[in-house]
Amino acid sequence: MVTVTGHGPARASRLRTVSEDDVQLHHRVVHGYRRAYRIAGEGPAVVLIHGIGDSSATWADLIPGLARRFTVVAPDLLGHGGSDKPRADYSVAAYANGVRDLLGVLGIERSTLVGHSLGGGVAMQFAYQYPERTERLVLVGAGGVGREVNPVLRAVSLPGADLLLSLLRLPGVRWQTRRFAGLMKLLDTDLGQDATELLGLVDALPDATSHSAFIRTLRAVVDWRGQVVTMLDRCYLAEGMPTLLLWGSRDGVVPVRHAHQAHTAMPGSRLEIFEGAGHFPFHTDPVRFLGLLEDFVETTRPNDWSTQRWRELLGAGRPGSAAGQPDDAHNRAVERDLREASERSAT
Q1: Which of 25, 49, 61, 169 is buried most, with the most CB atoms less than 10 Å from its CB?
Q2: DSSP 186-236
Q3: Per residue in 297-306, pLDDT tens?
């Protein structure tokens, strides 16, 4: 299922050769904290934002191909990867500010944002806070739509999570956990599709500082009931923003139904489903992922933001928010989702 926004002229570009050796980790100090990031290529900027517990390394196989046409920036969010892990604000809004400041240090004024999982929520928040600096949005298995999220993440948000993460690193427990994950994959469950990547996230938390940063980040977006923030109630402000939604049909972390909810709430967006893929479609089928991303950037015009249009959208409010009864089951379902979203709004 694909809905296409208005096409602009394809951007002619000379392909450059970028090897994996060119994509090294760099560091800059911003506000006193060391921020790690990868940067490669030349041309219009594309920013890749990873998910919770992950790092810019998750994009490593894609960066050389993408950098043939674009300047690619892939940060390690604060508390992740090679970036510092202070006792700090790990909210979605704070992450959006951090991305803005890093791009400012690098001299990048506008960019296409590609966000995976938590990074999708950060990308949406960035576009909400800084629409004048956002050319396009690409949301990959993104958080921040519906309340549903994998029960494991809900459990880790509870008290005692530090102990749980420490136990998962013990040799005996790790072996049992990997055996269970293998069973989930053998049984062909949705969670099994992502077992290897999810266990890799646990392995990437080597010490108490990493555990603390992970839990602080998780608790900012998830509690025992599920996701606690959303952008669903203000998606109407993305009118005119070229948006691409990429989801695995068997995403065991953020259900694919969230892709359809976001697609409905963001008129003009494109939706591409990776059949059989889990939460990491760019790992499952990197060739298709890269092709879709390149085509999207080259066939859409950057967001043309204006203060006047922003004011008009805010004044009109969310479509369907006025008094009146929905006229069919679909509209009732959408309205129910939006009512639920109103208690979980990101700021």
Answers
A1: 49
A2: HTT-HHHHTHHHHHHHHHT--SHHHHHHHHHHHHHHEETTEE--BSGGGGG
A3: 999 999 988 8
pTM of the entire structure? 0.80
Answer yes or no: 306 catalytic.
Answer: no
Closest of 281, 260, 279 to residue 271, by C-alpha: 260
Q: Give the number of other Cβ atoms within 10 Å of residue 200's Cβ.
A: 14
Length of the chain: 347
- pLDDT one-digit tens code per residue, 162-203: 655 554 554 544 544 555 455 455 545 555 567 666 666 566
Following DSSP, what letter does each residue of 147-188 receive, concatenated?
A: S---HHHHHHTSTTHHHHHHHHTSHHHHHHHHHHHHHHHHTT
DSSP 9: P
3-state DSSP assignment of residue 88: coil
Q: Which of 55, 91, 111, 117 is catalytic?
A: 117
Q: Which of 116, 258, 279, 283 is catalytic?
A: 279
List 251, 263, 269, 283, catalytic entry: 251
